[in-house]
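Minutes, project huddle
Topic: does the predicted pose make sense with zinc ion bound?
PN asked that the exact inputs be recorded in the minutes so nobody has to dig through chat later. Recorded below.
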Amino acid sequence: MIHYSCDLCGKRIRDERYTVKVEVAAATDPEHLTDADLEEDHLQQIAAELSLLDSTAEFTIPETGPKEFAFDLCSGCCQTYMKSPLGRAPVARPNFSHN
Ligand SMILES: [Zn+2]
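Predicted holo structure (tokens), as shared on screen:
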């Protein structure tokens, strides 16, 4: 049996488990792509860089691509997360109701 622990509070998740998946990617507008962008040969660039190195261990790919994160949360932390997914208090809404 697989045991999960909450990525926020670190406690073992015994009941409901929630997963949060976040993808961070540069927002590019396809309409602004130039012919130069499309003609760029990335494989050629990588091959060129590789040939400059003695060992492939020294080769690091620049982090420009989309990055995905996945977290397991307990129900309590999930509630907290949904209130402020960006880790800060939500921006007050104009139509906030005063009970
Ligand atoms: Zn938790």
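Observations noted during the meeting:
- Strands lie at 17-24, 67-74.
- The longest strand covers residues 17-24.
No decisions taken; revisit at the next huddle.
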